Amino acid sequence: MARRTERGKDRRVVSRFASLLALPLAVACAPVTGEGDAAAPPVASNVSGALFVAGKFGNLLSKVDLASGEAVVTVESCANPHELATSPDDTHVALACYGGQTVDIFRTSDLAKITSIDLGENARPHGIVWHTNGDLYATAEGRQSIFWIRDPLGTAETFEYGSGQQGTHMLAVAPSGNHAWTTNLGSRTVSLIDLKTRRAPQSVEIGEEPEGIWLSDDGETLWVSARGSDAAFMLDPQTLEVRQRIETGNFPLRITLRPQGDYAVTSDLADGGLSVIDTVTGEVVRSIAVSSPADAEAKTQVTILFSPDGERIYVAETTANTIAEVDFASGRVLRRLPGEGGGDGIAIIE
User: Fold this and answer.
1) Of 34, 229, 266, 339, whose Cβ has the fewest other Cβ atoms within 10 Å?
2) Starting from the edge strand earliest in sequence, which strands make up the sheet with 252-257, in order?
3) For residues 139 and 126, is the Cβ–Cβ distance under 8 A?
4) What is the pTM of this model?
5) What is the pLDDT of residues 134-164, one digit of tens each?
6) What is the CATH number of the domain that holds 343?
7) Among 132, 128, 133, 139, which Cα is nearest to 106's?
8) CB of 267 closer than 8 Å to CB of 310
């Protein structure tokens, strides 16, 4: 009975925020007053590089110069673009076209579209990884599968692997490229998919609506955030056995690891904050306030991304059309960058 009650509560939370994220563009792009005002002048910084932002409500792709804090290029993209991934040499960025069936690739210098890779009818690609081996990997939620795209800038051969699960949403790929892991929202599972032998995928239930996923650099720990359970999980990547459950903030949509490997961070959409987890002890050591909890419905947080040096974390405040730049050591919001059109997926080069 307790389990049914918890699920009922979770579904109400999910429904509330799903409705919010589905707001029409006119509402989603309404001006927000105060520190997070999307119309506020850009703030310069000594940080170099660029941030790429997918505007999922406006069907846009933008390049934000980190030194000036300005969007220097904005182009029309595909329908409902979501996750982004940059190539190993930082010369291209791949965009998952969640409202369609392609992965589109743009040049990072000027956002000129280079190619569009068709994954087939009803693919609805969402999660995407551009591996150090040069290949792309993407979920195809509408087909309950993932794709391995070999040589995406050349022959672009595609290989599809069924998950057999509903809502195959986000993914992580092993350093070797031999395995991938997916979170499956509808089935409430995590799947291990063998990319070399094509053995049947292994799936286990992990909390309510697992969504965020990240593999440690050494490939020894799989991290998953289950948004409906307000929890993160440490898993054995090969057996999918839960090593530890960690209570986080409310509605953790994403999870990422600091490049140094010492902390995992969840993006807690309903709290407007971040939960910081010690990767050794598995304990939440602090919380970082990014958006005011009182204004959380105007500044819902989605994707999070560390800078390559691990000193800053970028937080997509999707319905405020801003990307918060946060100093990780102090937890202070340094500035808010443009996130035009409902910025969601983000990627960085420095």
Assistant:
1) 34
2) 252-257, 263-268, 273-278, 284-289
3) yes
4) 0.88
5) 999 999 999 999 999 999 999 999 999 999 9
6) 2.130.10.10
7) 128
8) no
